[in-house]
Specification:
Blueprint: E1 3-5, E2 17-18, E3 21-22, E4 26-27, E5 44-46, E6 59-61, E7 71-74, E8 77-78, E9 83-84, E10 88-92, E11 106-113, E12 123-127, H1 132-136, E13 139-140, H2 152-155, E14 158-163, E15 174-180, E16 190-198, E17 217-224, E18 227-234, E19 238-245, E20 251-259, E21 262-268, E22 276-283, E23 288-295
Antiparallel strand pairs: 1-5, 2-3, 4-16, 5-10, 6-7, 7-16, 8-9, 10-15, 11-14, 11-16, 12-13, 12-15, 17-18, 18-21, 19-20, 19-22, 22-23
Length: about 300
């Protein structure tokens, strides 16, 4: 087995790290994978594939991410002729210290695969140490993930969430994306993007039908060129507090919004956003609703 430790440049960000341990994680890979090679700074990589044959390892690509942005991918496909090898490749986060969270804490990530039934499905694991022997025994938490990996991951990108709350007092905590490729002439490739911690539990049906008359408030939306557009259906006129949160649960924009009864569309410009996943909330004294928002 061979482990490659990458540069720890990301550990120099004092606002995110305490004693070399990240207190939160927010990685859209747009900058760190913009060159199209290597592994994000501060992350680690564990793989038996020889470093002289990097093709099948976890590696950055300028169009490997959601919406063809920079991202990271793994296939286990290498050699001449190209063959899928029975190898295990683990992409490992920086050391995490989540012990300060009083409530729940989750890990969100976007993923897509070329074929769900060819080769092993990717697993989410955790460990307390990144030495070879402990990585071999990393604990699999894939079964507790929502939603589970499925054919939806082949059709399009899917946002998944793993509950880290049971492990938040483990310090340091490392999360790994473990891919085991199958041996032979057929296999699959997995892609990863927008990896981060959040205090918001992922809602699997967070974009309700805006024509619904059964809910007092429902809405959906999208972000394009830093402009948020939301379509709302409201049972009665009211003033709401609109909040936009990033995947770490941090409120990045807040304002009042007057909603009439019925269906209406609203545009908010100049938001401090990049490509990725956001949560929008509308709250009043009597009701609230939220929606997952994609920024393109």
């Amino acid at each position: 087995m061979k482990k490659i430790l990458l540069s720890a440049l990301a550990l120099c960000t004092a606002s995110l790290y305490a004693h070399g341990q990240a207190t939160s994680l927010s990685e859209d890979l747009n900058l760190k994978c913009a060159t199209g090679s290597g592994i994000p700074a501060g992350w680690q990589f564990y793989n038996p594939i020889p470093s002289t044959i990097p093709l099948g390892m976890w590696q950055c690509g300028v169009a490997f991410g959601r919406f063809s942005t920079p991202g990271i991918s793994c296939s286990g496909l290498y050699g001449s002729p190209l063959t899928y090898y029975l190898d295990t490749s683990i992409l490992i986060t920086p050391a995490l210290n989540l012990s300060a969270y009083s409530g729940n804490i989750y890990l969100n990530f976007d993923t897509k695969t070329t074929a769900i039934n060819l080769g092993a499905r990717m697993q989410i694991v955790y460990t307390t140490d990144t030495t070879d022997s402990l990585l071999d025994m990393a604990t699999d938490i894939t079964a507790a993930m929502m939603p589970v990996f499925s054919n939806d991951d082949v059709t399009d990108w899917v946002t998944h969430q793993a509950n880290l709350t049971p492990f938040k007092n483990i310090v340091p905590l490392y999360i790994g994306f473990r891919y085991t490729s199958a041996a032979g002439t057929t296999g699959n490739r997995w892609y990863l993007d927008n990896i981060g911690t959040t205090t918001e539990k992922l809602e699997l049906s967070v974009n309700p039908n805006i024509n619904s008359t059964t809910a007092p408030l429902s809405f959906s939306g999208s972000i394009t060129d830093n402009n948020l557009t939301i379509s709302c259906h409201n049972s009665f006129p009211a003033t709401y507090s609109l909040q936009l949160l990033d995947i770490t649960g941090r409120i990045i924009h807040s304002q009042s919004l007057n909603l009439p009864s019925g269906t209406s569309t609203h545009n908010i410009g100049g938001l401090p956003v990049s490509t990725g996943i956001y949560i929008a909330r509308l709250l009043s004294e009597h009701t609230q609703a939220k929606a997952k928002i994609l920024s393109r």
